[in-house]
Specification:
InterPro entries: Aldolase_TIM (IPR013785), GH (IPR017853), Glyco_hydro_27 (IPR002241), Glyco_hydro_27/36_CS (IPR000111), Glyco_hydro_b (IPR013780), Melibiase_C (IPR041233). It catalyses: Hydrolysis of terminal, non-reducing alpha-D-galactose residues in alpha-D-galactosides, including galactose oligosaccharides, galactomannans and galactolipids. It is a single chain. By secondary structure, this protein is an alpha/beta fold. It contains twelve helices and 16 strands. The two termini are 30 Å apart.
Length: 416
């Protein structure tokens, strides 16, 4: 792990954690690709990956909205349409929140006489195709949900196990752009087999569909899911609590070396704005998710979101860290008594740093330039991403900030 590597380095070493981070990213992705067998050739996989990247699918972590965290099963086509409208009117769509994702409970309990999935007539009377057309007319993309089992997690509609090709064609015909694929009520077979079948089906529909594997991290999907999809859940379901956020962040941190353009670790959707945490905790949540290059999928009701919630979700400087084209997941590099330093390499030799106070009281946190691969003798330009201002540096060897309990400070550091 990166932290172990760092502890074993001498302070004067010419190697930095950033160098190790990049090496591990490349080595681990290559290792993952070489150790898995799939139903199609490596050439087919490479061609499909290039097809997706050329079409802009998950070149950077996907951004958008998902219905699950706030609405659960209480969804209908009006909610989806008004959410699409709200993404545009709040300016969030212009910042990159493009996917409008319908989660569980959108379909009828049984398939039609041809064996096809169908939208629930009472809640989606116009059908998914018409809804996709509406979302597309707003310059957005539509996502949908299914399951690698016989039933979805709600038990209210069929899963896609045994119907992968048929369902993939249906989604493509409807104009779907994103598939979240869950892991409930399956036949006990390995997820590598079940998720691979849907991956192969999606490759053959002639439409770029972002494929998000929701396997909950049970079989260490970071090690194999990059062969099949664009994002994979590394954890169980998030809750709108501080304890859930810090636990999930630590779980996702373990797998940082496997992420990169086209393939992302997913610590689950954002809870920002749902009411279970305070604003400082939500800023920390959003900052760490952005640094970890997690998919930024809003989980609150955008139509009723407060100005403070929109300001957090709409912080362009933090979003830019998440969407940096280099695609290196930020990692935890030091922690003691709840005071933590997280950092990640950005394009242009810059480094994003989060000073995160998980303790119960305000405290100073210091990051040294050597810790992030900078020379202690050269000047550094420091940009505070929440204050939207530059910091005048009096010390050359590092940065110290007093951070409130459960809050964070987030910076971009640029050597000059």
């Amino acid at each position: 792990m990166i932290i172990t590597c760092l502890k074993n380095m001498k302070m004067g070493s010419k190697f930095s954690f950033l160098f190790v981070n990049v090496v591990l990213v490349v080595a681990s992705i290559n290792k993952g690709v070489n150790c898995m067998n799939v139903s199609s050739s490596n050439a087919d996989l490479d061609d499909y990956t290039q097809f997706l990247l050329a079409n802009g699918v998950a070149r950077t972590p996907p951004m958008g909205w998902n219905s699950r965290n706030h609405f659960q099963c209480n969804i209908d086509e009006r909610t989806i349409k008004t959410t699409a409208d709200a993404l545009v009117s709040t300016g969030l769509a212009a910042l990159g929140y493009k996917y409008v994702n319908i989660d569980d409970c959108w379909g009828e309990e049984k398939r039609d006489w041809k064996g096809s999935l169908r939208a629930k007539a009472s809640t989606f009377p116009s059908g998914i195709k018409a809804l996709a057309d509406y979302v597309h007319s707003k310059g957005l993309k539509l996502g949908i949900y299914s399951d690698a089992g016989y039933r979805t997690c709600s038990k209210k509609m069929p899963g896609s196990l045994g119907h992968e090709e048929q369902d993939a064609k249906t989604f493509a015909e409807w104009g779907v752009d994103y598939l979240k694929y869950d892991n409930c009520y399956h036949d006990g077979s390995k997820p590598q087999e079940r998720y691979a079948r849907m991956s192969y089906a999606l490759r053959n529909v002639g439409r770029p569909i972002l494929y998000s594997l929701c396997e909950w991290g049970q079989e260490n999907p970071a090690k194999w899911a990059g062969l099949y999809g664009n994002a994979w859940r590394t954890t169980g379901d998030i809750k709108d609590t501080w304890e859930s956020v810090i636990s999930i962040a630590d779980e996702n941190n373990i797998w940082g070396r496997y992420a990169g353009p086209g393939r992302w670790n997913d610590p689950d959707m954002l809870e920002v704005g749902n009411g279970g945490m305070n604003l400082e905790e939500y800023r920390s949540h959003f900052s760490i998710w952005a640094l970890m290059k997690a998919p930024l999928l809003i989980g609150c009701d955008i139509q009723s979101a407060s100005h403070e919630t929109i300001r957090i979700l709409g912080n362009k400087e933090v979003i830019d860290v998440n969407q940096d084209p280099l695609g290196v997941q930020g990692r935890k590099i030091r922690a003691k008594a709840g005071l933590e330093i997280w950092a990640g390499l950005l394009s242009g030799k810059r480094v994003a740093v989060v000073l995160w106070n998980r303790s119960g009281s305000r405290a100073p946190i210091t990051v040294g330039w050597r810790e992030i691969g900078f020379s202690p003798y050269n000047p550094v330009i420091v940009r505070d991403l929440w204050a939207h201002s530059f910091i005048s540096m009096r010390k050359r060897h590092g940065l110290t900030a007093y951070v409130a309990s459960h809050a964070c400070k987030m910076y971009i550091l640029t050597p000059s």
